[in-house]
Amino acid sequence: MIRVLVVDDSAFMRLAITNILKEQRDIEVVGTAKNGKEAVEKAVKLEPDIITMDINMPVMDGLEALKLIMQKKPTAVIMLSALTKEGAKETFEALKLGAVDFIAKPHGSITSDLKLIEEEILSKIRNVYHSNPNITRLFNLRKFRSGVVRGRWNSNGSEFALVIGSSTGGPSALEQIIPRLPSDLPASVFVVQHIPRGDFSKQLAERLNNISELEVKEAENNERVRTGVVYIAPGGYHMKIRESLGVKRIKVLSGKPVNAVIPSVDVTAESIANVYGGNTIGIILTGMGSDGAYGLKLVRNAGGYCIASSEDTCVVFGMPKAAIEIGAVDTIRPLFEIPEEIVRVLEVKSGGN
Fold it and tell me: Is residue 139 part of a domain?
């Protein structure tokens, strides 16, 4: 049984979520809490497997409660987040503090639209439980290493691309990689983080842009690709790169999920392999499932170089493991060594080393 603690200041929401969970044979609601203070107390006392927690609550909000839970009783926490700019900021702060995932509330409130996200609530609870995420690892990722990695490149006219895929634990992992890449990086960088529609991908881009030498932005449809820019796939859309008459442009496309996700790493990686061929570096980070394995295999088959994050530095080893198992990876590196590996490969590929 998956033991869940439900935390929300709304009595209606506590009851509604509890009723959904109680209908499941494999889930047991071990308790509820109406504010962050109660959440911390019950997390310690009841030792749930998973906590669903609202952010905005009286007495103690979800962020403060999350800090204390990570200190006293590290637990897998799934946040409920509003589809607003402020809600997105709070969500990424929660992910940085140790939350393992989040669920976006439709229209800022799920009281009338709970059925729309019922399946997501259940699937995320089950996926988080069965993937057995390393919660303390997520909380400590940012402590590994800092400092921009410099490289020596030759301007040989070649255009290079990095494609980075991540899911659960991804925002924290990306903060260990993007800020450590130098401003003169001779490559365009394309990031596919599994994320829903809303302000979330834009907020992720702004957060990374504020701490990086490289420009980081949310990708826009039809914009021309520039070297030294990091493009974040918009939440809820696939991102492809296409070339026409020597000009590379980004295509942001609605469509069906691939590998049950949108955006999909496989979709982006396949298009990049077709355009950049052997001048591509593929990187797969932490996350559930197998998205990215097929895409990295195409990158490697095209002559590119592929890196997977090591199990001991992944919150969830699912995506890297899947890529490794099908032979899509050239090297496995701890998360904090990946920036050095990127720079080293670019030096070799550009003839600078």
Answer: no
Contacts of 232 (CB under 8 A, 6+ apart): 191, 193, 201, 202, 204, 205, 208, 216, 217, 218, 219
The residue annotated as part of the active site, out of 9, 54, 101, 291, is 291
C-alpha closest to that of 78 among 109, 107, 110, 54 = 54
| Phi, psi torsion values for 246, nearest 5 degrees | 80, 5
291 in catalytic set: yes
- Active site (annotated) includes residue 184: no
Contact 350, 153 (CB under 8 A): yes
Nearest in space to 300 (alpha carbons), one of 329, 266, 272, 325: 329
Catalytic residue selected from 167, 201, 264, 290: 167
**Which of 194, 212, 238, 271 is an active site residue?**
194
CATH number of the CATH domain containing 200? 3.40.50.180
Q: Are residues 173 and 117 in the same domain?
A: no
Residue 210, phi then psi, degrees to nearest 5:
-70, -20
Q: Are residues 79 and 195 in the same domain?
A: no
- pTM of this structure: 0.92
In a shared domain, residues 19 and 86: yes
Q: What is the pLDDT along the chain (353 residues), one digit of tens a residue?
A: 999 999 999 898 899 999 999 999 999 999 999 999 999 999 999 999 999 999 999 999 999 999 999 999 999 999 988 766 778 889 999 988 889 999 887 654 445 567 778 888 999 999 899 887 877 665 555 555 679 999 999 877 789 999 999 999 899 899 999 999 999 999 999 999 999 888 899 999 999 999 999 999 999 999 999 999 999 999 999 999 999 999 999 999 999 999 999 999 999 999 999 999 999 999 999 999 999 999 999 999 999 999 999 998 898 899 999 999 999 999 999 999 999 999 999 999 998 76
Number of domain units in the chain: 2
* CA 238 distance to own-chain centroid: 15
Q: Given the structure tokens 């392999």, which residue do they identify?
A: 273
**CA end-to-end distance (rounded Å), the chain:** 55
